[in-house]
Design goal:
Blueprint (H helix, E strand, L loop, with lengths): L6 H29 L1 E3 H8 L3 H13 L3 E4 L2 E4 L8 H5 L3 H9 L10 E4 L8 H5 L6 E4 L2 H10 L3 E4 L2 E3 L6 E3 L10 E6 L3 E2 L4 E4 L2 H10 L3 E7 L11 E5 L5 E5 L16 E5 L1
Parallel strand pairs: 4-5, 4-9, 5-6, 9-12, 12-14, 14-15
Antiparallel strand pairs: 1-3, 2-3, 7-8, 10-11, 11-13
Helix pairs in contact: 2-3
Length: 270
């Protein structure tokens, strides 16, 4: 009897290998999505394959634009939303509203505001409706629309590409980044490390904030407690560069106490 594999068996083996590869690559994307990055060695150990196999998977995913292959690992791909808007929008809605309400004492007549990305700011119009003379500049299309339609605020939207399935403008560098002097810059975050570093998954979100911060008189970080102790690959700023932190619950317990600046004004909402 011949030891050769039949064509039908070969086709089945190829199909099984394709399925395993698809499942493995889905697991890799999930790991990068949750943590912002993943190392080859960790992925190989967790998925029970060789590092060479993981490197081939990363090359395939990189070529497809689903992540960025780096030395020894992979990072979230620019312009790819890490969590769907519906998933983020329905998370902690009442907490986010309370956090935004805490902004009110910091908004003065004729204030010029930069408002960053994230669903945390979806209810900002509920505050600004009481401040008709405010000027808002933002890459956040949800904020721009709600403030323009439901308040008397003047609204400026930064230009660029709209991220797929997300009301976010991935801004193109131009002179508009230096056009305004902001009374307050209101930022969100994807993650805040225990050393007080504010982090994002998408580097395209970070560039605009880096350009805005030097032109802002006061920097306000608004983040609920679940953002603390998490990780993402791209550094936005640090708490020593933030003037006001608005958060809730046990957020501060997830920071090393030595990393909380004495000058930081902290507002805790229930």
């Amino acid at each position: 009897m011949s030891g050769r594999t039949s064509p039908g068996a070969e086709q089945q083996d190829n199909a099984n290998d394709s399925l395993r590869r698809s499942e493995r690559q889905a697991a890799i994307l999930d790991a990068v999505r949750k943590n912002g990055s993943a190392s080859v060695s960790d992925l190989a150990r967790e998925l029970g394959v060789t590092q060479q196999t993981i490197r081939r998977d990363l090359k395939s995913l990189n070529d497809s634009g689903l992540l960025q292959k780096g030395f020894g690992g992979a990072f979230a791909s620019p312009g790819i939303v890490q969590y769907g808007r519906g998933e983020r929008q329905n998370l902690l809605v009442s907490v986010k509203r309370q956090l935004v309400q805490a902004l009110e004492p910091l908004i003065h007549p004729n204030s010029t505001m930069f408002v960053g990305l994230g669903t945390t700011f979806d209810s900002l119009h509920e505050v600004l409706i009481r401040h008709p003379s405010v000027f808002v500049a933002t890459p956040n299309l949800e904020v721009a629309y709600s403030c323009a339609m439901k308040t008397e605020a003047s609204v400026y939207v930064y230009g660029g590409y709209v991220r797929s399935k997300d009301p976010t403008v991935l801004t193109v560098p131009d002179e508009s980044r230096n056009r305004f002097k902001f009374d307050i810059a209101v930022l969100g975050a994807s993650a805040i490390d225990e050393d007080g570093t504010v982090l994002e998954f998408d580097p395209l979100e970070v560039d605009l904030v880096h350009a805005i911060l030097p032109h802002s008189r006061q920097v306000i970080l608004v983040a609920h407690e679940e953002k603390f102790g998490k990780r993402a690959p791209h550094r936005v700023t640090t708490l020593d560069k933030v003037d006001v932190l608005i958060t809730n619950g046990g957020a501060l317990e997830k920071l090393r106490s030595s990393m909380i600046p004495k000058s930081l004004q902290i507002t805790l909402v229930e």
